[in-house]
């Protein structure tokens, strides 16, 4: 007795014109899985260690100090800024940006202690400003300062300005300093009210000026 003939499987339909064949799925080998797991473990350890013990120099495995802080309801908010008088005698705020002074705000804040200990470092910012603004009056006196906002129960209680350091004269910032975004103001640096010394050159701390 003869066996019934087996029917052949239907042929796969031809691909439609313009369609792409599905790529072959490749599974990771045991070795590939192992080194990926090790890389993940090492990265996790670096981030955890940096978050606990690291500082700005360990970024990206540590948080940047300018962002990694919490302000309490009764604390103060400090914002670093640069002010200057140009050769025409105009007092102004100078934007802390790489395009403006050759160094970014984060770098200025990260080196704040060095600026205080070595005020002549501010001269490099004046030189960078002159190179980037060849048609503008040069900066002849600079101050590194902080706007301070005092909080009480989460609400603003008052504001002040602290002069961290000045160069070439380590004096307090004149009280006529314009508000952020304000126009330049003429100032006489030889006037007694504009030549008050910054009291503690070793730390840059000075009597705060209320506003």
UniProtKB/TrEMBL annotation:
<feature type="compositionally biased region" description="Polar residues">
    <location>
        <begin position="195"/>
        <end position="211"/>
    </location>
</feature>
<feature type="region of interest" description="Disordered">
    <location>
        <begin position="1"/>
        <end position="25"/>
    </location>
</feature>
<feature type="region of interest" description="Disordered">
    <location>
        <begin position="174"/>
        <end position="211"/>
    </location>
</feature>
<protein>
    <submittedName>
        <fullName>Uncharacterized protein</fullName>
    </submittedName>
</protein>
């Amino acid at each position: 007795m003869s066996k019934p003939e087996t029917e052949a499987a239907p042929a796969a339909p031809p691909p439609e014109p313009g369609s792409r064949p599905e790529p072959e799925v490749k599974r990771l080998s045991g070795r590939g899985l192992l080194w990926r797991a090790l890389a993940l473990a090492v990265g996790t350890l670096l981030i955890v260690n940096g978050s606990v013990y690291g500082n700005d120099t360990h970024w990206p495995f540590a948080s940047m100090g300018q962002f990694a802080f919490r302000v309490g309801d009764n604390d103060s908010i400090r914002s670093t800024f640069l002010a200057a008088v140009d050769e025409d005698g105009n007092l102004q705020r100078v934007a802390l940006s790489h395009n403006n002074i050759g160094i970014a705000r984060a770098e200025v804040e990260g080196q704040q202690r060095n600026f205080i200990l070595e005020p002549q470092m501010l001269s490099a910012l004046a030189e960078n400003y002159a190179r980037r603004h060849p048609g503008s009056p040069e900066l002849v006196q600079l101050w590194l300062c902080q706007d301070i906002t005092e909080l009480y129960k989460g609400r603003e209680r008052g504001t002040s300005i602290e002069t961290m350091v000045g160069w070439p004269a380590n004096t307090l910032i004149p009280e006529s300093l314009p508000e952020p975004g304000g126009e330049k103001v003429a100032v006489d640096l030889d006037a007694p009210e504009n030549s008050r010394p910054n009291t503690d050159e070793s730390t840059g701390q000075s009597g705060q000026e209320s506003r």
